[in-house]
Amino acid sequence: MQDNYGRIRRVIDSFENILPKLALSPTLIIAAVFIYGFIMWTVWISFTDSRLLPRYELVGWTQYITLFTKEPRWWVAAGNLFLFGGLFITICIISGLALAIFLDRRIRGEGFFRTIYLYPMALSFIVTGAAWKWILNPELGLERVVRQLGFSDFTFRWLVDSNMAIYTIVIAAVWQSSGFVLALFLAGLRGIDDAIIKAAQVDGAGLVRIYRRIIIPSLRPLFFSSVVILSHIAVKSFDLVMVLTQGGPGYSTDMPATFMYSFAFNRGRLAFGAASAVVMFLAVLVIIVPYLYLELRGTRNAE
Questions:
Q1: Alpha carbon distance 173, 90 (integer Å)
Q2: Which residues contact 287 (CB under 8 A, 6 or more apart)?
Q3: How far is 69 from 151, CA to CA, in rounded Å?
Q4: CA distance 135 to 119
Q5: Which has the closest alpha carbon to 91: 160, 176, 201, 14?
Q6: Is residue 248 part of a domain?
């Protein structure tokens, strides 16, 4: 009887060990095929001469050479990415930190203000782009409203100005994502021990000095996480650009993502678009790999 019970118990235990693997296996298979499999497929296609339909005969580095030496539009897209990414990340971090400090002072109506700041996070970039396209449209939005108020000489035509249109994308993206940075920093501020702040106050440190010397330096990991996540968002920016400017006027607001879409699907240059996608993928890896390395090293040191 004991032997039968022991065998049954072992069968149940082995089934309990296998069950999580069985439950996760479909997800792992789908991820392996539709994420990593298609990444490898894209890399392969980038070394071919595929046009409208894929071809699998390798032709070497032709598409990459063309991308970097014979296509000025790519350098416009890359320059826009650096400009947009730099402004987007910097403004999001500064505004998010400032708003977090403001809310951390336990002001009256904190829940109301927090809801307002966090609301854009609930919207997709498509909705954000459509809303800001209406706001910045000279015939419908801000310019028309201000002129109706009596300022007939007021102009705000950034959306249709090839030199300024990129900044409209920055405005919309900051409005969308600064709430995320706010939430991140507010959680960090609320996690700081009040005893440290009180001890500094007893020693005569003012509020500005406490934030500059104690609180903000302690948020260094959150700064790094914010930069990584916002950089990832900037590199993948596609839907916001397509809805707000469609890469225009001309291709003055092109980004690598819209560049890839235009050449791969609109112009029938699949291999060329795949090459630009691989470059984007490598850019994301340059951002993500150091972050993962530091996180893993920090986990090992903690153990």
A1: 12
A2: 228, 231, 232, 235
A3: 48
A4: 18
A5: 176
A6: yes
Question: Using CA atoms, how far apart are residues 165 and 79, in angstroms rounded to an integer?
Answer: 14
Closest CA to 97 of 217, 199, 194, 200: 217
CATH number at residue 81: 1.10.3720.10
Per-residue buried b or exposed e for 64-92, using 16+ beta carbons within 10 Å of the residue's own CB: beebeeebeebebbbebbeebbebbbebb
> What's the CA dihedral at 277, 280, 285, 287 to 10 degrees?
-160
Tokens at 195, concatenated: 């005893």
**Residues above pLDDT 90, as percent of the chain:** 27
Question: Which tokens belong to 244?
Answer: 């707000």
Instruction: Give the list of residues 6+ apart from residue 213 with CB closer than 8 angstroms, or none.
Output: 205
141 is in which domain, residue-wise?
A: 73-302
pTM, whole model, 2 decimals? 0.83
Q: For the segment 46-93, what is each residue's pLDDT rounded down to a tens digit?
A: 999 998 888 889 998 999 999 999 899 999 999 999 999 999 999 999
